[in-house]
Write a structure and sequence with these properties.
four-stranded antiparallel β-sheet, six-stranded mixed β-sheet, about 65% helix, about 575 residues, Rossmann fold, alpha/beta, 12 strands, elongated, ABC transporter transmembrane region fold
Length: about 575
């Protein structure tokens, strides 16, 4: 389906408002066209033929009618603007809501290759440009073409020669609309892309400002941003030059040519004594020809808005066309927490496997430790277990059910995760534990926080669990963020728990506290722990050692130490033996 048709389908959702706007617009155009007729009537019937004495009463009455028409036109224009603004805003509200809902259904791999700033740009900047299409460009074009059509009809009624002259201008306008679109399309695409790139870079730079400043990379980052900004400005200036060359300049030349031809027609008529035009008729023809070019100026001036909106619409609908994750039919209520990986292989890219023939069996309530060097496949196992991705080969079973056959929502409802760098949202400690879920009461959240040692979090905070949290929890220590993340997982009471390198970023004192919290969390739950510090998984029921996507060792801590393999070397290195 073309972009134009899709925009039409979006607009149809507010058809009552748009129809009301078009009706008001139609009457506003008709009202505006009545003015010159009154002027012609005054000239021909009350001034030209009045002789030495002019009766002012009918003239004043007609002028009063003219003023009344102007007031009615102003009122209609006001309501027309309000109606179109409301309709356009509603369309964009629905579009943004649908787009945001859609991106939440997209697979994680889609976002692997698309920076967050580019996603934000499409939801905010591009939809804002589309808003201008409905609130500015659409009424301008409809009113403009309605005015042009009405004026040409009236001019034809009074003088066919001048009407033909006016009619010739319309194909020129359409020709220029098509030519402008072809020329500006490339520049508008580049402008929107560079705008997205700058948003992405800003987002990335703000999130990584600590690293940028720590490594004195400010100048380099500034240079990269300046290069993007220069390319954006270069192409935007090309659009401005194109607009400047073709808006008033082009229309001004055409208007001058039309008036010269009209003067020639009138002059020839008078010189040949074939003049049939009255003074009033000359006034109305000149007035209407002048009015004919006003909407043309407006239409040409909105060409850049039209093209930017078209490009933005393509970008928005391109994202909407991304295939969402398949919504499976089955539901899974995890009751035991048994997990099996059966001959699982997986790759983020085709023909590049990061996991090869993985077999795991975690009995209900067991703790499974995952160790290995960076890139060995530990996090990939967690991604598969949570179904951020599906395996390329093999099966993952939870309580004997293939995870591919059930909805992710039902599966994840009894699963919890604690990340190495816990993400906290703007709000309070309470809202970060409950995540706004009404099923988690304040009492449950407080109890969960206390069970994981939360008194150490709250003792330095005056407002306790109601303490405000800024984005990413930047004002809290890493240990406090970690404990809040633990409390969040505990409050949702999962049957399967994933601890992603939970103690890699904390000091030894806090590690002991976290270890106690982990013991609370693991009780009665199947737990997978990605460990940097092997001391945190000494008591695990199973320890899996991964290397280059394969399980090379498997057993308990004592068994692996006795094996004197890779795990024993890693443990000896960490313990200083």
């Amino acid at each position: 389906m073309s972009t134009t048709k899709r925009l039409y389908h979006e607009a149809v959702k507010e058809k009552k408002l748009f129809i009301a706007g078009f009706i008001i617009l139609f009457f506003a155009v008709v009202t505006e066209l009545l003015g010159p007729v009154i002027g012609m009537y005054i000239i021909d019937h009350h001034i030209k033929d009045a002789g030495e004495t002019i009766n002012m009463q009918p003239i004043l009455q007609l002028l009063g009618l003219y003023f009344l028409i102007a007031v009615v036109y102003a009122i209609m224009s006001y309501y027309q603007t309000i109606v179109f603004q409301t309709a356009g805003s509603n369309v964009i509200k629905h579009l943004r809501t649908n787009l945001f809902e859609h991106i939440q259904k997209l697979p994680i791999k889609y976002f692997d290759n698309l920076p967050a700033g580019k996603v934000v740009a499409r939801i905010t900047n591009d939809t804002q440009t589309i808003l201008e299409l409905f609130t500015v460009m659409l009424p301008t074009y409809i009113a403009g073409f309605a005015n042009i059509l009405g004026i040409i009809i009236v001019i034809f009624y009074f003088n066919a020669k001048v009407g033909l002259l006016a009619l010739i201008v319309v194909p020129l306008l359409f020709f220029w609309l098509m030519l402008y679109r072809k020329i500006s399309d490339k520049y508008n695409h580049i402008v929107r892309e560079r705008n997205s790139d700058m948003n992405a870079m800003l987002n990335e730079s703000i999130n990584g400002m600590t690293i940028i400043q720590a490594f004195n990379q400010e100048a380099k980052i500034q240079q990269e941003y300046d290069e993007l900004n220069k390319e954006y400005l270069k192409n935007y200036e090309r659009i401005i030059k194109l607009d400047s060359l073709t808006s008033h300049n082009l229309m001004g030349i055409i208007r001058s040519a039309v008036f010269l031809i009209m003067i020639y027609i009138f002059g020839q008529s008078f010189l040949s004594n074939e003049a049939t035009l009255t003074a009033g008729m000359m006034y109305i023809l000149v007035d209407y020809l002048t009015r004919l070019f006003n909407p043309m100026f407006n239409i040409v001036n909105q060409l850049s808005v039209l093209e930017q909106a078209r490009v933005s619409s393509n970008r928005v609908f391109e994202m909407m066309d991304e295939t969402p994750e398949i919504i499976e039919q089955g539901e899974l209520l995890i009751t035991r927490g048994e997990v099996k990986f059966q001959n699982v292989s997986f790759g983020y890219k085709k023909d590049e496997l990061v996991l090869k023939d993985i077999n795991i069996h975690a009995a209900p309530g067991q703790t499974i430790g995952l160790v290995g060097h960076t890139g060995s496949g530990k996090s990939s196992i967690m991604n598969l277990l949570f179904r951020f991705y599906d395996p390329t080969e093999g099966q993952i079973l939870i309580d004997g059910v293939d995870t591919k056959s059930v909805t992710k929502a039902s599966m994840r409802s009894r699963m919890g995760i604690v990340l190495q760098d816990p993400y906290l949202y703007t709000g309070t400690i309470l809202s970060n534990i409950t995540l706004g879920d009404n099923r988690i009461s304040r009492q449950t959240a407080e109890h969960a926080l206390m069970r994981v040692g939360g008194h150490r979090v709250l003792q330095s905070l005056e407002q306790g669990i109601d303490t405000e949290v800024v984005e990413r929890g930047a004002t809290l220590s890493s240990g406090q963020r970690q404990l809040i993340s633990f409390a969040r997982a505990l409050a949702f009471d999962p049957k399967i728990l994933i601890l992603d390198e939970a103690t890699a970023s904390i000091d030894s004192e806090t590690e002991a506290m976290i270890q106690q919290a982990m013991d609370v969390l693991k009780s009665g739950r199947t737990t997978f722990v990605i460990a940097h510090r092997l001391s945190t998984i000494k008591n695990a029921d199973q320890i899996l050692v991964l290397d280059k996507g394969e399980i090379i060792e498997h057993g308990t801590h004592d068994e692996l130490i006795a094996l004197q393999g890779q795990y024993a070397k890693m443990y000896a290195l960490q313990s200083g033996r």
